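Problem statement: downstream parser choked on a complex file, so we are re-checking the raw output for the zinc ion run. The parser issue turned out to be on our end (a line-ending mismatch), but while we're here, posting the original submission so the record is complete.
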Amino acid sequence: MHELAVASSIMEEVMRIADEKKAERIVEVIISIGEFSCVVGEQLLLALQTISQKTKAEKCRFKVVREKGKIYCPKCNFVGETTSLPLKTTQLGGLNPLIPLKCPKCGFLGTKIVNGRGVKIVRMKLLRKSNP
Ligand SMILES: [Zn+2]
């Protein structure tokens, strides 16, 4: 399961930041998922809830936001969001990154993805240790 691998690397990062900031608990984590990252939000949340048990992030609120992908067309130099994408990531359980993305301006099929492949932490809410 791809989402579990992504969830573990997110948790690693979350724990690293929490340690750095000397946080006692992690209250909220907001994660952005790129349109072309092939990660299903619901499955990622489930994986995060599972692996955060018995850690500082237990009972933490995980939220995902979608990041719009961007493509570049080498034929007409278009850079921007795709409009012709016929795929709904949540319905198909992640889209195939090998499917050529059509340029909305000139219809060229050899466009390149320039943004929206990654999964990253956008914001975290931490509870710090109170000073005695
Ligand atoms: Zn084009």
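For whoever reads this later: The CA atoms of residues 82 and 122 lie 23 Å apart.
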